[in-house]
Design a protein that fits this description.
Number of domains: 1
Helix content: over 70%
Order of helices and strands: HHHHHHH
Distance between the termini: 10 Å
Largest sheet: none
Structural class: mainly alpha
Number of helices: 7
């Protein structure tokens, strides 16, 4: 089960990154019609779910979120048992579920209609993703310090949070920094989990 969780942790960020990059290139004109610009990523990546092939982005949110939740379970089973391990992996599981919540279709930022119920749920899920993933990473840093196999990832984890936390809430090009930092961190931790089982 831990091996499966490690593989989910490895595949999830890669899948998300590939789909996001490919859809951004393929749907470039559509994104521009939403008010997006490469240096001002308005409605990105969620806006990709608004076009005719948007189900691909929606499915990617779903699969990536479920993989993150499975990955969190694998970490819980592999790290030394403690209250910090339990809370941090529980928060990471909730972050995965928040990512699943991104499957509720967003509302375009530039619109003349009121917000929809599914747009509000999408926005709430995005906020919950930040409110669970960042604390999970901070606490995982402490959990990593209790095991020699994981110990050298503690400082890297905290540095990633220091970089990603402010960029998560900022609009514009800084959001790319958050996304890239989170994906690379997830990949590094999943590869470490995979090497231990």
């Amino acid at each position: 089960m831990i091996k499966l969780a490690a593989r989910a942790g490895i595949i999830g960020p890669i899948l998300f990154g590939i789909v996001l990059f490919a859809m951004t290139i393929l749907k470039y004109d559509f994104l521009l019609s939403l008010g997006w610009h490469p240096l001002e990523p308005l409605d990105w990546p969620s806006g990709l779910a608004l076009e005719e092939h948007g189900w691909v982005m929606t499915l990617t949110f779903l699969i990536s979120g479920l993989m993150m939740t499975l990955f969190a379970y694998g970490l819980r089973m592999n790290l030394p048992r403690s209250r910090v391990t339990s809370i941090s992996t529980w928060l990471l599981s909730l972050a995965g579920m928040a990512m699943v919540g991104l499957t509720f279709t967003t509302d375009p930022t530039i619109r003349s209609t009121p917000a929809t119920w599914h747009g509000r749920l999408h926005d709430l899920s995005f906020v919950l993703l930040g409110l669970t993933m960042m604390p999970a990473m901070i606490l995982l840093g402490f959990a990593f310090r209790t095991d020699s196999h994981w110990e050298n990832l503690a400082r890297y984890t905290w540095m990633t949070v220091a970089l990603a936390l402010p960029t998560f809430w900022l609009k514009g090009i800084a959001f790319y920094v958050f996304l890239l930092a989170a994906l690379i961190w997830s990949e590094a931790v999943a590869l470490r989990l995979n090497s231990k089982v």
